[in-house]
Amino acid sequence: MNGYLDMELLRFTTAGSVDDGKSTLIGRLLYDSKSIFEDQLEAVKTASERLGNEEINLALLTDGLRAEREQGITIDVAYRYFATPKRKFIIADTPGHIEYTRNMVTGASTADAAIILVDARNGIIEQTKRHSYVASLLQIDNVILAVNKMDLVGFSEDIFNEIKSEYTLIAKKLNLKNVHYIPISARDGDNVVNRSENTPWYKGETLLCLLETLPVKDGIDKLPVRFPVQYVIRPQSDKFHDYRAYAGRLASGRIKTGDKVTILPSFTESTVKAIDEADKPLNEAFAPQSVAIRLNDNVDISRGDMIVKSDNLPSLDANISLMVCWLNHRPLSIGAKYIIRRTIFLFARHPFLFEH
Asked: What is the pLDDT of residues 196-229, one digit of tens each?
């Protein structure tokens, strides 16, 4: 593989309190890095005018729900994808309202970095601490404290340093590994993609430059092969009379023709005969590609089974130890019975297989 497919992928999440400018920051990243199409920009311009905004509201690039646009807040986790010549990115824009704090867990669970926004006028608040705790709980390697709306405090170095000093104590208490501090104005673009002339006292990198150089964990394609079968393809036509393939999305790892595989939970063994992506044959597939796998043997496989490489079987156990982020309003009760979804679990990018 080469080109775009071989580019490193960085996943990051944004978090902050209401009106700290998360969606505007992402809109600015997309806009200044020229990662949006003209029709998208026109749609945002039209929506901005309809909502009575004098300028283009870049937050509308991510606030996709009608309720979000009407209220000017983020409710759901919004995912956006963009790339620069150096790296690919997946952004998870998470809500700021206290009642939606749990939604940050969804976006942060697979993140390499977390951008926590702070309004320069308000400094560190309770919601900042909550989001920092979630980042610590999920062991996110890099936290970027983006001190936003610096234009509203005259780009004051003293205010920035006060916020930095206060957050340094919080980061130490929460054992956050690598914390980076950047003064920005998401609305105007200061230190987001381009360096700002308004902060000559800031000698660090712009936000995009930092995102392009942060270390990235091994991707899911480097983990053991886990292929949950979603559908069995049997056309039963004259053209594809003997065709039998198992379709699904490769949850992790890389698989190629000739690999010896085991089907779970039956432990039947076979060898990969061919890999198809739509009507295109592949020699190798990698996560998270959706493909159809054909085997040398006509084995009994159905939806819910899993294909793994025979030299790296997962552990099967009836007893499970997990760190759980509980999202239900009703507290978890010890001794109560819960239904666990069987086959594939991807917590912090580590797949596990276990039975009922």
From this structure: 999 999 999 999 999 999 988 766 778 899 999 9
286 is in which domain, residue-wise?
219-356
Q: Look at residue 351 in the predicted model and tell me its pLDDT.
A: 39
For residue 22, give the amino acid letter: K
167 in a structural domain: yes
| HSE value, Cβ hemisphere, 13 Å, CA-based, for 40 | 15
Contact between 193 and 208 under an 8 Å Cβ cutoff? The reply is yes
pLDDT, tens only, 314-348: 877 777 777 777 767 788 888 888 877 666 544 33
Number of domains in the chain: 2
Closest CA to 342 of 325, 322, 310, 318: 318
> Looking at residue 137, what is its pLDDT?
87
Largest CA distance in the chain: 76
Contacts of 154 (CB under 8 A, 6+ apart): none
d(CA 139, CA 103): 17
- Among 161, 184, 213, the domain-final residue is 213
